[in-house]
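> run fold glucan endo-1,3-beta-D-glucosidase
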Amino acid sequence: MSLILLLIGVLLSSTALEFTGAQSVGVCYGGNGNNLPTKKAVVDLYKSKGIGKIRIYNPDEGILQALRSSNIEVILGVPNNVLKSLTNAQTASDWVNKYVKAYSIVKIKYIAVGNEVHPGSAESSSVLPAMQNIQKAISSANLQGQIKASTAIDTTLIGKSYPPKDGVFSDAASGYIKPIVNFLVSNGSPLLANVYPYFAYVNNQQSIGLDYALFTKQGKNEVGYQNLFDAMLDSIYAALEKVGGSNVKIVVSESGWPSQGGTGASAGMQAHIMGILIKHVKGGTP
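> ok
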């Protein structure tokens, strides 16, 4: 029993959360490490624990094969190092045929075209054309009603986050993100966002209390927030509104808390915040 609980703790250390309609929780499957269980065993574990969503960071055919027998919804990742190749329409079509159409029985819901690509990086100019080509290929496979292309950002793209209603993308990020948001709007896709209260807390401990980051603050602050996660999420929504994305929904594609290696990092705190966060998604932000 202790082995199972330990495995669950490891698998839940990075969590994918969806804030669209009925709130639900999934897990991020990285596949890195030693002495890992088989991919089928991982999927069977998820099914036994009622985990209905998974994010995988690359098109691993082993895990896709294991997911055939499940009813688990999937965020399928496109690694950053292949983005440039997918700016070619035929290559993107081949990618979709191999990893999406061939696994149409798998409940793939979103394609994360790149993860935390930063403006000015070598991959940044490839994100939007790769998204467009992937979505066109999805449509050609008649899967457009089932699967949407998006990309996963991190919160470093937000130039101002407090108060949350004044959230805005940084000047450096604005030119990069606006065309992407236009694509999301026209395609009816959500924005994927990796939201880690831990990093915001560690980088600004003079202004952010640990209780606020851990959901244990008594009462709300002066702008109506009881916890940092909600404030961070709403600042992204506010930033989206300012670039024409007022109707774009956000899927929180990663969140978590470290078990060691930094200020405030411990296994106990990790278990505490993940337990609260999982319960919290049944509600909503202010």
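Strands lie at 14-18, 24-29, 53-56, 73-78, 107-115, 148-154, 158-160, 168-169, 191-194, 250-256.
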